[in-house]
Design brief:
By secondary structure, the chain is mainly beta. The chain has 1 helix and 21 strands.
């Protein structure tokens, strides 16, 4: 047990606690991979690969002090006539190692080794990571798009879906070019013209997932943690992909009383990411000492990367949230320039 807190509620004392399950199992991961590389000649190498993994006995976190639920014809609902399991207690958040994960990913790359003053690489990754929980071991999520605790501590499989860090598509391009000018010069001309190199890296990624939520105890399971339950989804979710409506929340509805929503954890997708950095270096050699002047531009094209949209669909009483689907932040800063000098000796 981590601790017990007696919290005053009116004229009564509500007991709350934080536990680590006493008989926790050892978490472990299993991984397997295969890669194939092919020399194409002309300093070119191509590669393709597959990576898989499976996680077992991973941390899972939530409040066991809820009303029992059951599945009736595939629909998760409260057991009629039941109340919370421990009525003399309030919140009993507990960590237990019962979550699971799996990952399948494919990679492809093309590499140009350094020759003729330049080198470059292009790599693509398709990833598919799913789990029943992604972090959030002590009541706060490890990810901006994750919940602090589970909807139902007794039903980890209800949380099964894309991992909070799942990114399906990632493309990375990088390269370096050493300017050939001035290398045969001497004196001041060599000092001014020789030793320049340009480098850059660009990344393009698809968006991370997020969960449609209700911010109140719509089901009526009685647990202290609210904002964890999910609505019903009535069909495919459309994505207008505007700042005011990244996804269309009209696809969701409020479930019947005592019934859990059929929307899945992390079933929505946020905006993608694109960023490019550029660098200009000037290398100077003084005997055994080497100096490098660096001009670096981060997000050089000043691309705007949007943050996550508001995924709370319904407010207290089943009122539709007017800001559902709206984006009010960015995920990366604007263009930044950095000038520096580096000494190597």
């Amino acid at each position: 047990m981590i601790g017990v807190l007696n919290a005053g509620v009116g004229n009564t004392v509500q007991k709350r606690s934080e536990f680590i399950y006493y008989d926790a199992k050892q978490p472990y991961m299993q991984q397997w991979h295969v890669n194939y590389d092919r020399d194409l000649g002309h300093q070119l190498t191509a590669g393709a690969g597959y990576l898989g993994s499976k996680g077992t006995n991973l941390p899972f976190y939530g409040d066991p002090n809820t009303t029992p639920s059951e599945y009736v014809n595939g629909v998760k609902q409260l057991v009629p006539g039941e109340g919370i399991r421990y009525p003399s207690w309030g919140r009993i958040r507990t960590r237990i190692n019962i979550a699971r994960s799996n990952y399948n990913g494919a990679t492809a790359s093309l590499n140009k080794r350094f020759s003729n003053n330049w080198q470059a690489q292009v790599s693509y990754t398709y990833g598919n990571s799913k789990d029943t929980w992604s972090g959030g071991q002590i009541g706060g999520s490890d990810f901006d798009n994750g919940a602090g605790s589970a909807t139902d501590w007794w039903d980890p499989e209800y949380e099964y879906g894309p991992s909070s860090f799942d990114i399906r598509h990632t493309l990375v391009i990088n390269g370096t070019y050493v300017l050939p000018i001035g290398k045969d010069s001497t004196g001041a001309k060599r000092l001014l013209l020789a030793g320049w190199q340009i480098g850059g890296v660009a990344q393009f990624s698809s968006g991370i997932p997020l969960t449609p939520l209700e911010d109140y105890d719509q089901v009526g399971d009685g647990q202290s943690d609210t904002g964890l339950q999910k609505p019903n989804v009535n069909g495919p979710v459309n994505y207008p992909q505007t700042v005011d409506m990244w996804f269309d929340p009209s696809a969701f509805s409020v479930p019947a009383a005592g019934v859990f929503g059929n929307a899945k954890r992390n079933s929505l997708r946020g905006p993608g990411l694109k960023v490019a950095d550029l660098s200009l270096f000037k290398n100077l050699v003084f005997g055994h000492t080497r100096a490098q002047f660096r001009l670096e531009a981060f997000n050089v094209f000043n691309w705007v990367n949007y943050g996550l949209p508001d995924s709370t669909i319904f407010l207290s009483g089943g009122v539709r949230n007017p800001t559902a689907g709206r984006i009010t932040s960015t995920s990366t800063p604007a263009r930044q320039l950095q000038l520096g000098i580096k000494f190597m000796f």
